[in-house]
Each structure stands twice: as structure tokens, then as C-alpha cells.
Design a protein that fits this description.
The complex is a heterodimer. Chain A is mainly beta. Chain A has no helices and eleven strands. In chain A, strands 2, 4, 5, 6, 9, 10 and 11 form a seven-stranded mixed beta sheet that branches. In chain A, strands 1-3-8-7 form a four-stranded antiparallel beta sheet, with no helix packed on it. In chain A, strand 9 and strand 10 form a beta hairpin. Chain A is globular. The termini of chain A are far apart. Chain B is mainly beta. Classes of the chains: A mainly beta, B mainly beta. Chains A and B meet through strand 5 and strand 10 of A and strand 10 of B.
Chain lengths: 107, 125
Amino acid sequence: DIQMTQSPSSLSASVGDRVTITCRASQDINNYLAWFRQRPGEAPKALIFGASTLESGVPSEFSGSGSGTDFTLTISSLQPGDFATYFCLQYMVYPLTFGGGTKVATK
Amino acid sequence: QVQLQESGPGLVKPSETLSLTCAVSGVSISSLYWWGWVRQPPGEGLEWIGEIRHSGTTKDNPSLKSRVTVSMDMSKNQFSLRLSSVTAADTAVYYCARRGDCIGGNCYLNYFDYWGQGILVTVSS
């Protein structure tokens, strides 16, 4: 199985801050990487797919980068609704695997 | 508008079979997609369980040791999950979700783009 190592597991930030979350795959996943935001009590919502393509309707404060095994999600200016948990997903091979999550909390 | 809605018992006894259904609206499940299940134990991360393709092909997570059955009912536009021999470790919120299929060799749309709201299933006697 491909292991997805996400870091940090949690961070504290303020509205307006720039936030960076990373995901490392245990082998090359050829950019088959998606990012999700999950607010408490809600289902995950897709933000980025193909490592860097913004999902329709997602604000441009979100961006994704990286290739091969190392990927980054950046929130350029944290908004109140962005305090949530973020997950990455590799969908290149079975079994599909998620990162452990990064909880973004208020500083 | 695409919508997915899980339904089923919220409490299952150990050793019994967990059965959930996902009703789909706004798109036919015979369209070019995969229809799958993901779960999240309380306070933990996400785990892919299994899925079924529009053609009927199924895939499931080997970590669940062949306890998974995913099926579809075209007439009702819904798909289902059965997880046998459950234990307390199977207690989780279960989500159904849609995943794109490869088109012309491009598989970058094969991520989960629509999710149900989730249903908590507790395994307890």
C-alpha cells in the first residue's frame, strides 16, 4: 500500500495567515493527489485534484503544488471558514489511501 | 444537482453484518463513475472501504479481509455496502461518495467529487 504522510498533524493560525500543509507519498504517485477540507460534523469537500487543479467553485486562496512524492496545499489568506481538518488522498493505485489529516485551529 | 444520501441501521451487534444504502439523485449510477464507501472512526482519519464501477466491477480494501460487498441497484439508482463479521473496530461514520472514471486515458478526475453527509454506525451488543 502507498503510505501518505501528512504534516503537521495540527497547527494554530489566525485569520489572514498563510498556511502550508504537506503530504509525502511512499512512492511516486504521478500527481494523482487530491486535497479535501472537512469542517466538524460535515463530509469532506474536494479542494484540489491532480495535485494542482482547483475544484470548481473553490476560492483562489487555495493552491496545490508538487509532483512525484512531495505535495503541498497552501492557503494564502486563512478565512474564518477555513478552520477545519485537511486531508490528502492518493488515487493512483488501489487501495486508495488518505493522509492522517491536519487540524487547523485558531491561535 | 448531484446528491448522495446514506441510510441504514445506526447500531449493529458484533459478529453481524453491517448494511448501508446510498441513494443517488441528480445523476444516473450507470454514468461513467465509480460509486464507493469511505469510513472515519471517531476522532480518526479516513479509510477507503470499496467501490463499484458503472459496469459492475468492484474493488475493495484488502485490509478488510474480504468482508466487503458493494453492489448496485440500477432500478432504484442506489448502491449498497455490506460489511460482515463486524467488531467494535468497525464503529465509524460511513460516507458514500462518487469518483470519476478515466476518460481517454486521463484519470486525473478519479477523485471523490461528491459525498453523502455520512452516517454513524456503532457496533455494540
